[in-house]
Amino acid sequence: MTYPNLKELGWNAEFLRQLDIDEIGRLTPVRLTSVHRDRVEALGEDGPRTLLLPPGLTTGEVAVGDWVLADTASDPEADRIDRVLDRKSLLHRRAAGTDVRDQLIAANVDTLFITSSFNEDFNPARLERFLALALAAGVQPVFVMTKADLCDDLDPYLDALRDLAPSVPVVALDARDSDAAAQLADWCGPVQTVALLGSSGVGKSTLAATLTGDDIVTQDIRDDDAKGRHTTTARSFHRLKDGGWLIDTPGMRAVRLAGVEEGIDAVFADVAELAAGCRFTDCQHDTEPGCAVQAAIEAGDLDPDRLARWQKLKLEEARHSESLAQANARGKRFGKIVKEIKRAKPRYRE
Ligand SMILES: Nc1nc2c(ncn2[C@@H]2O[C@H](COP(=O)(O)OP(=O)(O)OP(=O)(O)O)[C@@H](O)[C@H]2O)c(=O)[nH]1
Ligand SMILES: [Zn+2]
Questions:
Q1: 42: confidence class by pLDDT, cuts 50, 70, 90
Q2: Do 241 and 99 share a structural domain?
């Protein structure tokens, strides 16, 4: 069995530069292909490996696509991660439900295929949200529009996408057709890593199968977390027909924003620029005098819906970032209390 070499796995000079002389001989670079509660799976030049984590590092701090240095010599019982290399990009989101922790989705992704279909699923607010996520992560976004075969008139959708983000490439395709791979070939070649994002039913699994040549029905690997709840922590890493890699994330209906303010401002650069011209720095762009945003709306230069979507996203971002900061503070307080309790408790056995 031959395995892909490091370069084929996406390794490049940026990662190599992070190793010091001692590490080059002693440690092995490998790329993470799935993350479980207590261990990770990785792929390197010698094939797949299971790695344990060193003290002080949890699986919540690593993501599929990460490059890590594996220590395969120190402990005869198990291979371990020595350290995680700096990432060139990191997609993350807020965890589901009331959990406000940041959840890592995928690391070192070059291109995010923001997938939507030409039908009722088409939703500008959702696309902007995905776009903000991609830009904040440092990933190139591409709009991949599926079910083109079912739509009589693509133009209104294509126009809407151009208004939304003029510089983002748009590809319209039938996800079931093998031509789809050729249409996306620019982003799927050797050394490139892509990820798919989009709501349920838009055709992500279908497209993944077309791009990889496998029928990779998303297999969520369920793990029990510390509280015994079932969580989906594993993501899959698949070889693309064109030589690159696909990180396949389970359907994400609602991406929770947090810490992506820069991404939002980039997506709404036109509105943000207008807002910078308002008379008051804390202008709410409502009825304030000297509001450049309202002036643009009146002049027909700005769609009021777009202003509303910007405000909604910013509010959501502010709220989530705040709760994240609060949760971190709470976590620290909790940690302190646990330590105090431990200190106070008599120790019967060690
Ligand atoms: N006609 C047509 N059907 C498509 C296309 N893409 C996907 N489908 C169909 O749409 C349905 C849903 O596709 P999936 O690939 O399962 O969608 P998904 O995004 O993976 O959905 P989740 O797994 O729920 O996230 C399937 O019946 C596909 O065959 C397309 O481009 N054209
Ligand atoms: Zn204003």
A1: very high
A2: yes
Q: Residue 200: nearest ligand to its CA?
A: 1
Domain that holds residue 276: 261-342
pTM reported for the whole predicted model = 0.76
Kindly report the protein residue whose alpha carbon is nearest to atom 10 of ligand 1: 203
Atom number, ligand 1, closest to the C-alpha of residue 250: 25
CATH, residue 72: 2.40.50.140
**Residue whose CA is at the smallest distance from ligand 1 atom 25:** 200
105, 209: one domain: yes
ipTM: 0.94
Q: Are residues 100 and 224 in the same domain?
A: yes
At 287, give phi and psi (nearest 5°): -125, 10
Q: To test the ligand 1 pocket, which listed residue (205, 236, 252) has its Cβ within 8 A of the most ligand atoms?
A: 205
CATH at 96: 3.40.50.300
For 46-96, give the DSSP string.
Answer: TEEEEEBPPTT--GGG--TT-EEEEE-SS-SS--EEEEEPPPS-EEEEEPS
For residue 161, the model assigns a pLDDT of 92
